[in-house]
Write a structure and sequence with these properties.
4-stranded antiparallel sheet; mainly beta; 7-stranded mixed sheet
Amino acid sequence: QVQLVESGGGLVQAGGSLRLSCAASGRAVSNTAMGWFRQALGKERVFVAGLTWSGGSTYYADSVKGRFTISRDNAKNTVYLQMNSLKPEDTAVYYCAADRSRSTVVARTIGSYDYWGQGTQVTVSS
């Protein structure tokens, strides 16, 4: 049974930073493609960032490129999303997801991911 548990969300002022964590159990992140999605109130869940199972490739949504960084710590079996220069429009529930495929391309659709965390709220005040 694969479980993903997000943490690190909270309230931050515009321009601030947060680091989200996604602790995995039941599967090693070292050989798993991982992604972060977000869902703002009343909107669809959208892709934010992802990395391939090898860790060799990353991909970011245009809206966060240059501000967010996805990374993983294999020893801690944890994936991170470092978020800098936060904007009010980054306010959303952020979800971690795992993709069992061995694709060399970062998956960007919800249907590509097999496992999901429960989400963590990020609120950016202006």
